[in-house]
């Protein structure tokens, strides 16, 4: 028999496949991760599914997004998360221990394993060759209960790397370059697999940076091979047993190939308000900056901190610019302390934050009105910093540190990779490992739920003719931050009725009142949108809260993967125009009727009447049997037997 050559993705999927149909594969999930902002809902859903303990090999609950604790709500969430983790057999990572993706990479990731996380940047662990996918909370809850995770049979895009990065460029520039080629839309259904001789020149944290921001491409995940470099990473983390070699076979096939010569990569920056709005730093040098933030799950490794240190050492940040540094984990902080980095950062005028998401989602460090802020994070959507009038630029650490000193966008220094400290940070031979803030389950804790924590709401089955109104019409690339703001609103994540007051807050502040009034009068709400609706986060609240307000369908030109799944999971139909020009035939406020939904679900073709304009519009919605079950049941929780 001739052996078939396989790429890495096929190798992992073939080992984990438990169910498949023409279009979908269902894979077994080995590991899950949750974070506090999506996590409370995950565990509430898991309680509704009613299992004794998780069925995965490993599940970890991180607290990293919301640690400000203004008011009792966050602290109550943390208490619930700690006690419920204990009940279900989940490891609990205490607030202050680190950002989930950085932490998971360091302490739990493993090549060849499948990882499902209730956060869109879960693919970070692709840096070690794990098939790491971001999903909505209920999909993660189901995986913890032993259910397969379903996705469309993926197409694999190879990114062939050759050459070596120049000393002024870094991993972040590689992914910004790729975003400039592929953009944030049109890549749904792909998995990016990195290969080629350039791979071995990149350390695991650099590979993780690239996989992390692959989320912004809209792909299902990104993955690197697991090789000698990966093996050294596991040795440094004292986790040798978790290393497995994983490389593509010779002659493995790919659906598409993109080539990148690393030696041609220039320092890049993403301009407001999209991560694919990329330009060279050289072309924007001199742009004034009021704030520079180094950190987030994209760029907060020890290597990133050492690069910042080498650039900032002995210098001072000018008075007109704030420099914020948030390391990725306690391991990074402890090692920085040991190496003397912290002292130097403080002397140069930096503000050191605890290792959490913080500034990345506007949870603190919001810039001044109309300010320019440069960040090493992955998203620069409008309003994400918490200041709607501010402009966010994204770059790597070299550019950020140099720009903090200049008070304006500046060309980065050339980092000497032979410098002893830089070498140590690359090979991680100096790591301080301390797992004392990981709490292992005992099964003995009493579950504690504060007054802000309520169960997921009941969905409404989709059936018959649905009469309603185009409650909101929006344009292209509406992000989940537009739909469900994070930042100061995060603390209402466990209280759906309260959080729902802020749906589309920055797009149309009256949306909530209109939608709620319609719902109470039995009038369905429809949302009309352009291309790439639901970009960004995995937050299922961007589906739960609209469902709570009576949104029954989103009608758009195209929709992003995780958000599509979240809508289906909460009983909202994601429908696309058969002819995109029909977008122009619906105005906000028009009366609409979606005819015979049952037939639409069977045929994949839906008929919408715009009663105001007397116009028939054909919509598409090709759903799998499983997805139809969710819509018929009023959501996944009901379909899989959870919830009353
Ligand atoms: C984000 O980066 O937008 C978040 C906040 O991490 C989200 C998850 C959330 O909304 O809680 C994500 O990326 O999925
Ligand atoms: Fe946290 Fe930002 Fe990463 Fe999301 S993108 S997990 S908010 S650091």
Number of domains: 3
CATH superfamily of the largest domain: Aconitase, domain 3
Tally of strands: 27
Helical run tally: 22
Q: How are the strands of the largest sheet arranged?
A: 21-22-23-24-27-26-25
Q: Strand content of the residues, in percent? A: 15-25%
| Small molecules in complex | alpha-methylisocitric acid, iron/sulfur cluster
In CATH, the topology of the largest domain is named Aconitase, domain 3
Runs in which pLDDT lies below 50 for 5 or more consecutive residues are none
Bulk shape: globular
Cα end-to-end separation: 52 Å
Secondary-structure-based class equals alpha/beta
Tell me the layout of helices and strands.
Layout: H1 8-16, E1 17-20, E2 24-27, E3 31-35, H2 36-49, E4 58-62, H3 72-88, E5 91-93, H4 100-107, E6 114-117, E7 131-134, H5 137-144, E8 149-152, E9 155-162, H6 171-182, E10 190-195, H7 204-214, E11 221-223, H8 228-236, E12 256-261, E13 268-270, E14 278-280, H9 281-284, E15 291-295, H10 302-312, E16 322-326, H11 330-339, H12 341-347, E17 351-352, E18 372-375, E19 391-394, H13 397-406, H14 420-427, E20 438-439, E21 466-473, H15 480-483, H16 496-499, H17 511-520, E22 524-528, H18 541-548, E23 551-556, H19 561-569, E24 573-577, E25 591-595, H20 597-603, E26 605-610, E27 615-620, H21 625-633, H22 636-639
Parallel strand pairs: 3-4, 3-6, 4-5, 6-7, 9-10, 9-12, 10-11, 15-16, 15-18, 16-17, 18-19, 21-22, 22-23, 23-24
Antiparallel strand pairs: 1-2, 2-8, 5-20, 13-14, 21-25, 24-27, 25-26, 26-27
Helix pairs in contact: 2-3, 2-5, 6-7, 10-13, 10-14, 18-19
The structure holds alpha-methylisocitric acid and iron/sulfur cluster.
Alpha-methylisocitric acid is lined by residues 37-38, 65, 119-121, 134, 361, 486, 536-539.
